[in-house]
Design a protein that fits this description.
Layout (H helix, E strand, L loop, with lengths): L2 E6 L3 H12 L4 E7 L3 H11 L2 E2 L3 H6 L5 E4 L6 H10 L4 E3 L7 H14 L4 E3 L7 H12 L5 E9 L11 H18 L3 E7 L15 E7 L4 E7 L7 E8 L3 E3 L7 E4 L2 E4 L5 H4 L1 H16 L9 H20 L3 E2 L14
Helix pairs in contact: 4-5, 5-10, 6-7, 7-10
Bound molecules: 1,4-dihydronicotinamide adenine dinucleotide and (2R,3S,4s,5R,6S)-2,3,4,5,6-pentahydroxycyclohexanone.
The site of (2R,3S,4s,5R,6S)-2,3,4,5,6-pentahydroxycyclohexanone has 5 residues, from helix 7.
Catalytic activity: myo-inositol + NAD(+) = scyllo-inosose + NADH + H(+)
Function: Involved in the oxidation of myo-inositol (MI) to 2-keto-myo-inositol (2KMI or 2-inosose).
Keywords: NAD, Oxidoreductase
């Protein structure tokens, strides 16, 4: 069965995913595209032989759309996710699920009323081969119980429109999700300390920031978010356990020896770093839908948890205090403890 996908939002990542669903993933076809910028929708649709529809509501209702992909701006995600659930259609929503915890909860409750999982959130690091190996080691118990995790999320530069709260909302959100999954644990408090700021930044921006998270089981996580590090896009993660440690591998790169030096390339953007993870994420999503199964990736609950934690982290950036995350108990519908 071919899964016919309708795409809401044909911007940067929308176009990437349209290309992926058309050229890389088997079993899917993009049949409809909408964007508030009609020229953008036309261009993206024409490239893959899809039709343009007026808006998200029309796209969700369309007979030639089996599943919905939401890649519009974050503040519009809740409306589209709720619309898709009301229509009983699976919906893949890029992060964030919604920009407020209240909207995320509404999606969670609506999905539970529907009685079957329809929502998947675009936290693609869970599909990265290196993170999957890290999880296997942690789950196997080979390094004993995890105690401390050290992480870094570095981007070469960001545009002037990037603000200090985006360090949590847009950047750290990926670590927040992947660490909950890796550790099978929940983040219960967050704190942010700011070292001396780099001079290679816009004056309004706190950069770098060091985020400190504590989990329900007492694991401590430090995350350096440094979005003007200049030298590359660099994602680091090292978990220290009672009997050893496990570290995320760097992407494979050839070593070059010349002129008395040995060097390896550092990637410069997230598109290249996580290209394979995005491919796997969509392959698995489409395969599950084609088989008539519920999506098994990051759930609406994971989207809710991430938004609660990023919101608390924004409060921590602004106040300098330790902020407890105020999360509802996890419903049985979403299983497990984290
Ligand atoms: N998983 C990941 O690593 C990444 C996720 N994202 C997420 O993807 C989403 C989109 O990001 P970008 O593509 O970078 O933004 P973008 O600004 O390039 O594209 C968004 C598009 O959505 C359209 N749009 C906005 N509201 C709409 C609506 N109500 N209906 C139809 N179209 C609408 C805009 O006109 C624009 O073309 C964001 O939520 C962002 O956080 C973005 C980059 C990476
Ligand atoms: O979502 C993303 C961007 O918005 C963000 O700016 C990058 O730092 C992330 O790694 C990327 O995955």
């Amino acid at each position: 069965m071919t899964v016919r996908v309708g795409v809401i939002g044909a911007g940067w990542i929308g176009q990437e995913h349209i290309r992926r669903l058309t050229g890389t993933v088997t079993g899917a076809r993009v049949t409809a595209v909408t964007d508030i910028d009609p020229a953008r929708a036309e261009q993206a649709a024409a490239r893959v032989g899809a039709r343009v529809v007026a808006d998200g509501a029309e796209l969700i209702a369309a007979d030639d759309v089996d599943a919905v992909l939401v890649t519009s701006w974050g503040a519009t995600h809740a409306e589209h996710a709720l619309g898709a659930i009301a229509a009983g259609k699976p919906v893949f929503c890029e992060k964030p699920l919604a920009t407020t915890a209240e909207d995320c909860l509404r999606i969670v409750e609506t999905e539970m009323e529907h009685g079957r999982r329809l929502v998947q959130v675009g936290f693609m690091r869970r599909y990265d081969a290196g993170y999957r190996q890290l999880k296997q080691v942690l789950d196997s118990g080979r390094i004993g119980e995890p105690l401390v995790v050290h992480c870094a999320h570095r981007n070469p530069t960001v545009p002037e429109t990037y603000t200090s709260d985006m360090a949590a909302l847009d950047t750290a959100v990926h670590e927040i999700d992947v660490l909950r999954w890796l550790l099978d644990d929940e983040i219960v408090s967050t704190q942010v300390v700011t070292p001396r700021a780099t001079s290679r930044r816009f004056a309004h921006l706190k950069d770098p920031q060091i985020m400190l998270f504590e989990t329900a089981k007492g694991v401590r996580i430090d995350l350096e978010v440094f979005v003007n590090c200049q030298y590359g896009y660099d994602i680091q993660c090292e978990a220290v356990g009672e009997e050893g440690l496990v570290r995320l591998p760097d992407p494979a790169a050839v070593g070059v020896r010349t002129a008395g030096r040995h060097s390896t390339e550092v990637l410069t953007d997230w598109v290249g770093r996580f290209a394979d993870a995005f491919d796997t994420e969509f392959r698995e999503w489409i395969a599950e839908l084609a088989a008539g199964n519920e999506p098994s990736g990051p759930s609406a609950w994971d989207g809710y948890a991430a938004t609660v934690i990023t919101s608390a982290t924004v409060e921590a950036i602004e106040s300098g205090r330790v902020v407890a995350t105020d999360m509802k108990p996890r419903p049985a519908f979403y299983g497990g403890t984290a």
